[in-house]
Fold this protein.
Amino acid sequence: QVQVVESGGGLVQAGGSLNLSCVVSGSTISIGWYRQVPGKERELIALILNNGRANYPESMKERFTISRANANTVYLRAKTVKPEDTGVYYCNAKTSWTSHWGQGTQVTVSS
């Protein structure tokens, strides 16, 4: 069973940076970061494959970076955060057949 644990959320000042970590147990083919802001659907921020290739929606490319420390640990970094970045950030790990979500970590950006 794949388990996913996020960490690193909390209160961040607007204009500052955000660093989140995701630790996954088990073998996966991709790990991604998503967020859900109040009043909106959960959206993809970034995805990284086992070969290290990262994919971003166009709207996220400028300020977010996903990276791997190893096969089981993935980071998300955001620069120049804004109050509208406030929300719950989730890590998702996919195998060939299943998708696994973490509990999420709350990020609050204060102005």
User: Anything to note?
Assistant: Residues 8 and 20 are 5 Å apart (CA to CA). The chain has a mean pLDDT of 96.
